[in-house]
Amino acid sequence: MEVIDVIKEASRRVYENVKDLAGTDDAAGDFGRGAGGDISRNIDVTAEKTVLDYLREINFECIVLGEECGRVELSDKPKGFIIMDAIDGSANAVRGVPFFCCSLAFAKEDKLSSITDGVVIDLTNGNMYWASKGKGAFLNENKIKVHGEEPVYRIVGVNASGADANLLEKLQPIFEKHNHIRHLGANALEMALFARGLMDVFIDLRKKIRIQDIAAGYLIVKEAGGLLLDENLKPLDSDLSYKTRLSFVAASNQKMLDEIMSQMK
Ligand code: IPD
Ligand code: CA
Hints:
Layout: H1 3-18, E1 30-33, E2 39-41, H2 42-57, E3 63-66, E4 70-73, E5 81-88, H3 90-95, E6 101-107, E7 115-122, E8 128-132, E9 136-139, E10 142-144, E11 156-158, H4 165-177, E12 181-182, H5 187-195, E13 201-209, H6 211-223, E14 227-229, E15 246-251, H7 254-263
Parallel strand pairs: 3-5, 11-12, 11-13
Antiparallel strand pairs: 1-2, 3-4, 5-6, 6-7, 7-8, 8-9, 9-10, 13-15, 14-15
Helix pairs in contact: 1-2, 5-6
The structure holds D-MYO-inositol-1-phosphate and calcium ion.
């Protein structure tokens, strides 16, 4: 079985197991603080257990790096790492705001740039965004690409939740100049929408994004032809450590990137 098929099947199982849980009182059950630093909710733990049970069922030899469960070694001869954010957009999922997903990626080594496969499944409708290195990015069976021409409405994704005063000041001209700023509350799914051409830029300069939030989106954006850079406008890369926190700028092309960057203070 190809790695991409393993993470696709794990994602489908998560969809089946959580689709009726989102927005219920049961979704919020508190399991204490997870490895990523946030409170693990029942819906997070249910989704992670679904992935771990499946990987064990098929004896997939890997090390899982989960946002809640931490590092779980499923073999002493691992083929690589499964980077798991079983529910991205946990607050939306618990409240029932229909924008949350499951993000799974596979990396051969301890680096974002060694990710070979990624899946982001929209848990509100089962839509699956996926990519394998060198093979392109897809929404279900259809190839996706970042937006090519000047769009009818420019949609600018900016994650500014919890941003400090310095960052807000830097971003202020962007908020002023653009009439269609979006932040929907699940970074991985927003990256997938960007890769599909529904947003032209997606910026998160808070230095808060964990590896789990970005791993699958990283490959999907790149395979869809997007530019994905760090805060110094270098190609985004990092280790897979639990301590790592990232900022990034994704843009559909160089012109869009230059324009947005020139507008920041
Ligand atoms: C969160 C979402 C959110 C972003 C947070 C992430 P989680 O992931 O991606 O959009 O603003 O920084 O932590 O906690 O729901 O998995
Ligand atoms: Ca997350």
